Amino acid sequence: MSETKNEYRLQGLSCTSCAAKFEKNIRDIQTVKDVQLNFGASKIAIVGEASVEQLEAAGAFDGIKVYLANEKRKEEKIPFWQKRENKKSMVSLAFLVFGYASSSTIGEDSPATILIFALSILIGGFALFKVGLKNLTKLQFDMKTLMTVAIIGAAIIGEWGEGAVVVFLFAVSEALESYSMEKARQSIRSLMDIAPDTAIIKRGKNEFEVDVEDIQVGDIMIIKPGQKVAMDGEVLNGQSSINQAAITGESIPVHKQTGDEVFAGSLNEEGFLEARVTKRTEDTTIAKIIHLVEEAQAERAPSQQFVDKFAKYYTPAIMMIALLVAIIPPLFMEAEWSEWIYRGLAVLVVGCPCALVISTPVAIVTAIGNAAKNGVLIKGGIHLEETGRLNVIAFDKTGTLTEGKPDVTNVVSLSDLSEKDILAIASAIEKFSQHPLASAILRKAEQENVDEYTADDFQSITGKGAKAILNETTYFIGSPTLFDEMRSIPKKIQNQIIGLQQQGKTVMLVGTEEEIKGYLAVADQVRESSLSIIQKLQKLGIEKTIMLTGDNQATGKAIGKQLGLSEVKADLMPQDKLEAIKSLREQHGKVAMVGDGINDAPALASATVGIAMGGAGTDTALETADIALMADDLEKLPYTIALSRKTLNVIKQNVTFAFGLKLLALLLIIPGWLTLWMAIFADMGATLIVVLNSLRLLKTKYH
To answer: How far apart are the C-alpha atoms of 485 and 462, rounded to whole Å?
Structure first.
C-alpha cells in the first residue's frame, strides 16, 4: 500500500540552516516516513502522517507557518518594519544607543551602562539564545550556536557593548537574508497569480461563474475581451488576438481562431471567444510550468553541493581554530587571557558560513525564476550551470531553424504533360502518403485548383518515394535515387536537379518506368530570425554551431551557408543524430541539442543539455528536455545562454567574496585589529554583497 504524500507551502523560511533544522525536526515525528524540503520554492513534501499543528510546532523556533499547497489563500504581506523580530531589533538598537551614550558619560564599567547593554542583548538576542543554547546542549554547531557562544563570551570578559553590537548586526543580517530570499521567490509567486481563480462557463443557454477547481474537461468557457483565460482549451467559436507572454514569453499577441489552443493565464485582447476546456486545472500548461520551476529550484546544482559539503566541515573547523586562538597564547606564551579569549570569539563570529551557504541557492533561485517569467523553463540548477559552460550547439533543421512547413517552389514538365498535370499526378499519389513533403504538394494542388485524379494500388517505397496506378499507367514519385535505379537520368535533367538542390530545395521526380515526365521542387523556408540568432550565439562565444538534418547534402549545405553555420551533417536518420551528438560530446565536451522535442527525443536526452522549443504546446518537450523554450521560436536561446553564463559568474563572484572577506578578517586577528563588531560586519557585509549580487540576475533582460 502506498504511503500518503502531502505537499505544504511554508511562510517565514528564511535561512538554509533553519531549513535543515526544520527538516530534521519533522523527521523526528514518528508517523513521518520521509521529508523533502524545497528551500528555493519554500515548499515541503511529507510522506506519512503529520498535522499542520505538528509541522508548525517543528518550525516554531523560527516562526514558520505551514499551509496545504493547493489551499487557495492570499499570503499575508507583513511590511518589513512591522515583522516582530525586526521590531525587537529596533528596540535593541535604541538600548544600544543609550548604552553608548551612558558609557561616554558615566563610564562603560558602571552597573547602569552594563544593565542597558544587557537589556539590548536580551531583547535583540532572546530568540537567538533560545536556539543557540539548545543546539549547544545537543552539540549541533550552526550559525546560531557560534553567535550565542561569541555573545556570552563577550559578556563574560566584560565586553558588553560589543556583545550588544553583535546581537543587533546579526539580527540585521538575518532580516536581509530573509528579505532577499522572499524577493528571489517572488518570481514564482507572480507566476502563480497569472491564471484567474474563476471562469465563465456556458451550460445550455445559461452562463455561470465557476471556480476553476470545479470546471470539468469538456465544459464550454466564455472569454470576453480584456479577460484572462482561466483554463487551457481549444477555440470553438470566434477569433481574437491573445497575449500569451506570461506562458511563452512572446511579446507579440498571437491570432487565435477555431481549432487553436489557448493557455490558462494568457490575456484575450479584443475578440469574444468560446473555448472547450481540454485540461483540468492541475494539468494546465501554467500549472506544469509552476511545478517544474519549483522542482528545478529544489535540485541542488553541483556548485551548491560542493558548498554544502564544505560548510559541513568548515563550521566545526572554525570552532576548533577559535578555541586554539583563545587558549594557546595564554597557556604557552604567558599572554593575557581576556585579550586572547576576545580574539577567539572574533574568529568564531567571522567564521560564520552564512554568506558561503547562501551564495549559490539565492543565485540559482533568482535565475530560474527570471527565466520562467521570460518563457524559458530551466529544469534545475545543474542544467543552468551546464548551459553556462556550453561550447557547441547542434540544431535539428526542420521546425527549428526552418518553419517546418515546406512549400512547393517549382513545378516543371519534361514531357507532353502540362505543369498542372504533373501537379495533379503528384497530388493523387501523395494523398496516401504520410511524408511531410506530401502536405506541401496537396496544398499547392488545392491552390492551383488542378484536376483530381484517382490513384489505385498505392505503394510506399521506403526512404525513396511511392508509386500508384493512374489511368492504367503506373506512375512513380520520389527522389532522384529512385529513378536512377530504374534508368539513368539524362545529364541535362541531372544538372537542373543539382542546381535546385544547391539552392536548398528537395527535388521529387514524377514519371513512369520508361520516362521522367517532370519534377517538383520543395523547400522548407528558413525562419526569419534564424540568421540573427546564430550570429548572437557566435558573439556570445559559442565555438561551433552545427545543423543535423535528414535532408540531402546539397540542401543541408545551402541552408548552412545561408545561416553561417560552422558545420552541417546531412542524410541522418534519428539514430544517426544520436551518434552525431555522442561524437560531438567526445570531441568538444559540453554540447547542447536544440529540437522540437518529438522526433529528437533520443538526441535531446544524450546531449549535455537538451533544449526543446514549443514547450507550451507539447508535453513531450516539457518532459524530455532539460530546458524548454515555451514559444515555438529560437528567439530566447541567446538570452538563456547569456543568463546561464551570468549566473555562473555571479556564483563564482559570491564564493570568492564570501571567502575573501573572511580571509581578510582572519588575517586582521594576527595584529589584534579585529574587533567583535568588525567581525560581524565582515560576515554581514559578505552576506549582503552575495545577496545583492545574486539579485542582479533579476535584471537580466531578454533583448
So the answer is: 14
The three cell numbers of residue 644 are 546561464
For position 304, what pLDDT does the model report? 65
Q: Is residue 487 helix, strand or coil?
A: coil
Instruction: Clarify whether 626 is annotated catalytic.
Output: no
User: Does the pLDDT at position 481 exceed 50?
Assistant: yes
β pairing state of 465-470 and 473-478: antiparallel
Q: Are 621 and 628 in contact (CB under 8 A)?
A: yes
Residue pLDDT, tens place only, 529-569: 899 999 999 999 999 999 998 777 878 888 899 899 999 99
Place of cell 522542482: 295
For the stretch 386-422, pLDDT in tens is 999 999 999 988 778 888 778 899 999 999 899 999 9
Query: Under DSSP, is residue 164 helix (H, G, I), strand (E, B) or coil?
Result: helix
Instruction: Output the domain CATH number for residue 520.
Output: 3.40.1110.10
How far apart CA 407 and CA 439 sit, in angstroms, is 9
> Is 344 part of any domain?
no
Cell of 444: 499547392
Distance between the two ends of the chain, CA-based, in angstroms? 52
Sign of the torsion angle spanned by Cα atoms 208, 209, 210, 216: positive
Range 443-461 average pLDDT: 88
Pure H helices in 473-564:
480-486, 491-502, 530-539, 553-563
Give the span between the Cα atoms of 654 and 657, in whole angstroms: 5
Confidence of residue 1 (pLDDT cuts 50, 70, 90): very low
Q: Grid coordinates in use for 623? A: 518532459
Residue 278 belongs to some domain of the structure: yes
What are the strands of the beta sheet with 506-511, ordered from one edge? Answer: 402-413, 516-526, 506-511, 473-478, 465-470, 456-461
Q: How far is CA 417 from the centre of its chain?
A: 57
pTM of the predicted structure, to 2 decimals: 0.75
**Spatial CA neighbour of 303 closest among 228, 378, 200, 380:** 380
Question: How many independent structural domains does the chain possess?
Answer: 3
Look at residue 397 in the predicted model and tell me its pLDDT: 84
Cα Rg, the chain, nearest whole Å: 33
Strands 609-613 and 627-629: parallel
DSSP assigned state of 667:
H
Per the CB < 8 A criterion, the answer to whether 551 and 570 are in contact is yes
Written as one string, the DSSP assignment of 614-641 is -TTT-HHHHHH-SEEESSSSGGGHHHHH
Say which residue the cell 475581451 belongs to. 225
Domain termination residue (choose one: 34, 68, 102): 68
The residue out of 456, 491, 525 marking a domain boundary is 525
Cβ-contact 67, 9 below 8 angstroms:
yes
* Average of per-residue pLDDT across 476-493: 89
What is the average per-residue pLDDT within 6-31?
80
In the set 142, 396, 600, 683, the catalytic residue is 396
For 150, the grid coordinates are 561569541
The C-alpha atoms of residue 546 and residue 637 are separated, in whole angstroms, by 15
